[in-house]
Amino acid sequence: MTRSTPTLLQARHLRFGWPGQPLFHDLRFDLPAGLSLVTGDDGCGKTSLLRLIAGELVADGGTLALTGSSAQPGDATWRAQVFWIDPQTEAHDAISAAGYLESLHQHCPTFSTDALADLVEGFDLQPHLGKPLYMLSTGTRRKVWLSAAFAAGAAITLIDQPFAALDGPAIRFLRELLQDVAQHPSRAWVIADHEAPADVPLAATIAL
Q1: In what order do the strands lie in the sheet with 21-32?
Q2: Which residues are within 8 A (CB) of 83 and not within 5 positions of it... i.e. 6 or more apart?
Q3: I need a surface site. Which of 5, 119, 120, 193 has the fewest CB within 10 A?
């Protein structure tokens, strides 16, 4: 950790792996407010760790705890505080981009309509909102997921490979967003990638 900030989540003795493929053992970290990076080689468990924090996977051992909360990973209270969307998901393919974004009000109590409007403009999503998600390119789908993540207003937001498949203007806009949230005093954003985004200060790095 490079600076003193509030801890929003603690991991202690965390252990996880797939059959025949252990990923990490006795992993410990304190997740501060601001922007943190999960990094490591391919196959080391970066995405799996995000899914564990989201409550989508169950650890083989150890604990994850939200500071000041009795919520358990995956329960309703936990999901209200931790935002995650798998960028590879096909679960929402049948609905439009607008339909997916509008549905977030049901799951994200702090979702910001004003922030979403700015994100749609910044990612140039307006021409695509009426299209079913299955019709969108990989990059445009990524822009939808990123818009959802930054509008959700969650205490902890998880983003896997944030720059993958984005065009130049979207990369620049996303870098500006990350710079804005990097110094947030009470919320955390966690990105999983091979390296840190340039010129963006990190509150913590979790190396796997």
Answers
A1: 21-32, 7-18, 61-66
A2: 108, 148, 149, 152, 154, 156, 157, 158
A3: 193
Q: Are the C-beta atoms of residues 3 and 203 closer than 8 Å to each other? A: yes
**How far, in Å, are 42, 107, 133, 168, 169 from residue 153 at the CA level?**
30, 11, 23, 26, 24
Question: Helix, strand, coil % (nearest 5) of the chain?
Answer: 35, 25, 40
**How many of the other CB atoms lie within 10 Å of CB of 155?**
19
Report residue 4's pLDDT band, with 50, 70 and 90 as the boundaries.
Answer: low
Q: How far apart are CA 154 and CA 108, in angstroms?
A: 7
* d(C-alpha 31, C-alpha 161), whole Å: 18
Residue partners of 163: CB distance under 8 A and separation at least 6:
171, 174, 193, 197
Any idea what the Cα angle at residue 120 is, between residues 119 and 123, rounded to 5°? 80
